Amino acid sequence: MKIVLLFVALASCQSNVSKGPYFGTGIKIGEVTQSEAIVWVRLTEAPSRVGNNAPMPSVKYKDPETGAMLERKGRPDITPVVNFPEGYNIKTIQGATPGKQGKARLKYKVKGVGEWKQTAWQSVNPKASFSTQFGLSNLSAGKEYELLVEASSLEGSKISASMEGGFTTAPAKNVAANVNFIVTTGTAYSDVDSDTGYKIYPSSLKLDPEFFVHTGDIVYYDDLGKTEDLARWHWERMYSYPNNIEFHRQVSSYFIKDDHDTWMNDAFPGMRTKFMGDFTYAQGTQIFLDEVPMGEKTYRTIRWGKDLQIWLPEGRDFRSKNTIPDGPDKTIWGKEQMEWFKRTVIESDATFKVVISPTPIVGPDRGTKKDNHANIGFQDEGEALRKFIGEQKNMVTVCGDRHWQYVSKDVNTEVLEFSCGPASDAHAGGWEQENFLPEHIYLNVVGGFLEGTVSRINGKPTLVFRHYNPDGNILNEYKIKE
Prior knowledge:
With 482 residues, the chain is of the alpha+beta class. It has a domain at 179-216 and 298-481: Purple Acid Phosphatase, chain A, domain 2 (4-Layer Sandwich), CATH 3.60.21.70. The chain has helices at residues 3-7, 200-205, 228-239, 242-248, 281-291, 335-347, 379-390, and strands at residues 27-30, 37-42, 58-62, 69-70, 80-83, 103-110, 117-118, 122-123, 131-136, 144-152, 161-168, 179-184, 211-214, 252-255, 300-303, 308-312, 352-357, 395-399, 405-409, 416-419, 440-444, 449-457, 460-468, 474-481. The strands form 5 sheets. It has a 7-stranded mixed sheet with strand order 15-16-17-18-20-19-21, covered by helices on one side. Helix 3 (228-239) runs parallel beside helix 5 (281-291). The longest helix has 13 residues, at 335-347. It starts with a helix and ends with a strand. The relative contact order is 0.13. This is Alkaline phosphatase D family protein.
């Protein structure tokens, strides 16, 4: 049995004997390969978040001519003004889980085998939301690992809090292993669908996934993220929910950023607006690296056994301005990333190749959008990318960003795309259910998540995608055979 099952009944262990630090936002395990992993740890002042009965700040926009304070309409290019409720501040508003200075160490071993290996104590970085990251190497392929993370004050040696966790390393590339994974997008705080966090986390945990991919829009800065501190608070309030903590301490993740968790809607480098106040694009890019486990580059490819390889592209840092005319030089991925993508795809001998993109590559998308490969904003690069993918054997695309589930097939290249849809029903929208186009194989304007499963059925490699609702009920299934 996997560590997921071993720990599912365990609450995260946090001592209340001392004054902290604690693990109020849990841990995140990421960037797992056959031999490596990164464990992200953050220390907090309290063992749990400020409750939902506490208020949140409000934002209005100052009219540059009259000085009147206006409610938001769209995303105005005028200066926001943040107001905290009387008696409240960044540490006491809803969901706040303030960080605390301290140190952490990590113990790990193959499940049920041998002695614990132990890292040295690492001090957290106050400039990185009081987090630190442990890089593990020389791991064994295809093994279940268990973890124990411990915290202490900088001055003392007493353990103030501990948390158990686990993950599975990727199987060797010559091993025909069963692998299943979960993909989601669109986890806006306002659309959380239970008091303990998003329901997709306990629902997908029951499927015993080897790994999880968040395709971006992990948090949404647009409404309230008008300063660097408020932007970091967005991560605190989301990842202090019990559902998030329980899931991420047991399942390894790959995180991709999109516009809303970089800066604002349809953001690109060099974009100018007063709408985000004192919070900048550069700060958003750095905060993402502070809040998730991440290696040297934000685009990467990972092999999971003989039958599966995934590609996780970077969709924001290298893009041209969305607003310039389309043409052969207009790009989302940039020249270096595109060359890397094509080279690594051609070099791969995996049975199934899956590119998991923060935005659509096939679509169809709305005619009003101009920021992804599925619409006219980047049509040249989109057509070239679909042509290349269509020329590969058993290569499909999975995407986030769109707030509806779908399976579609490009009419020209026959490339298949699976949109995971948003994490909750409250976040679903942007497409009409009756607008079933010739490209669609499946269409459902609902929330939930996508599961991909690679296995051998009667000796033949098979990739199956299943769409679920937030409660974990199957809505659609699509099989791809070699």
